[in-house]
Amino acid sequence: MLRKVQWAWRSLIAVMLTGLIIITAITLQPSNASMIAPLPDPYLTTGKLSEGEKVLSDYLQANPKDDKTRFGLGIIQLMRGTERLMQSLYGYGMAPTPLSAIPFVRLPIPVNPKPQTVTYDGLQQLFQAWIDDLSKVRSTLEPIQDQNLKLALRLGLIRLDFDGNGKVDKDEMLWQVFNAVTGASITEQQAQQFLIAFDLGDALWLQGYTHVLGAIAEFLRTYDSRELFAACAHLFFQNVDTPHKFLLTSRHKSPDDYSNYQFEFFDLISAIHLAKFPLAEPQRMMTILNHLKSVIRLSRESWKSILAETDNDREWLPNPNQKSVIPDVRITDNMIKSWFKSLDETALIIDGKKNLPFWRDSKLTLDFMKIFTEPRAFDLVSWVQGTAATPYLEKGTVTDMSVWTELLNAFGSNLFNFVVWFN
Questions:
Q1: Burial of 108 (0-12, 13-18, 19+ CB in 10 A)
Q2: 79 close to 162: Cβ distance less than 8 angstroms
């Protein structure tokens, strides 16, 4: 009898211990429900982009359907890629230049007292790194589908380490980058009040912009521009690996020194003359074409999502019934209708179903698609003159010019700014 009691107690204790082990295992096992989703804002506004990317990536491993966190990660990755680009330009000593009309040159990159010598291959690697960073952002954003997605960010307060010194100073904030690139005069107080509630339409918009930027960067990798680099890179960088060493000694010594302005005039003439590039990697032209097709597709999806919105919450891209966070900007029904028509017409042109008018002969049209599917060497002057277009000319169906007239009438003199914004 005693043995039976002892056996019963031992069995009970064994069952209890097993239960405790199972309960402990379950308790210690990471639970999606118990994990708190990290917000990107603390990492963006303190410049801790690397840490933020790791934290949000780790969370998404366990919660792959959390689109809010996914969108936040995409923004962090985009900012980190932008930071790497600026740090690389700083390392190569991007120089202050009178060519301030070029937005790319107006990035607020500090003067590097000890710049590296920039080589043609090094600059191409910089472009490729930017392409890879954009691809990474795109891969993060693509799965987003949440119709109720909402992520509020003070975009202007994002900090970037421009010079790569590991410190994020007050003057390294995104609102100052915006001022430098666009020529605007946003203040820090305005940046603090500029709160955007990003939604699904904005996530699709941002994904589309990675294709826009990717297409530009791919173009820079498609052609061999070594000769142009050797003759004109000194306009943008302090130390250049060029056989024309005299170009480096005759450049400006400071941003306010315009004593050699006449030389820069001839440098610009040379740049136009040398803008004729042999094909280096022709397969990239198809990549560019696919980027353009994705831009059209994502713009449609983005605006369909925006038009379906019924709220009015600090909108980045508003529908006609919403108010934009951008002051004094109003989107009308005519704008949206003409935009969709232009997207349809652009898709037909990119697919080769309609052609562009040829500026030197109204009886001929330009097959835009063939420029990418049958690429040739690039010659800027010959394109302006028209002879570079000869291989792509035919008597085809020209685009409906009324579509473009309607677009211009809807947006007016600010058409270009709206196109950049609308994507």
A1: middle
A2: no
Angle subtended at Cα 181 by Cα 175 and Cα 182, rounded to the nearest 5 degrees: 85
Residue with tokens 């302090």: 238
pLDDT confidence of residue 412: 93
Distance separating the N- and C-terminal Cα atoms of the chain: 85
- The vertex-416 CA angle with 411 and 419, nearest 5°, equals 80
Q: In whole angstroms, what is the distance from residue 368 CA to residue 391 CA?
A: 11
Cα distance between residue 15 and residue 6, in whole Å = 14
pTM for the full model?
0.87
Give the DSSP H or E segment for 378. strand 378-379
What does the chain come to in residues?
423
Distance CA 66, CA 29 (A): 19
Classified as helix, coil or strand, 394 is: strand
Tens of pLDDT, residues 191-228:
888 899 999 999 999 999 999 999 999 999 999 999 99
Closest listed residue to residue 287, CA positions, set 239, 381, 219: 219
CA 324-326-329 angle, 5° bins: 70
* Rounded Cα distance, 235 and 272, in Å: 14
Q: How many CA atoms lie within 13 A of 141 on its CB side?
A: 28
Q: Which one, of 41, 40, 48, 39, lies nearest residue 160 by Cα?
A: 48
Quick check: 40 and 56 in contact, CB under 8 A?
A: yes
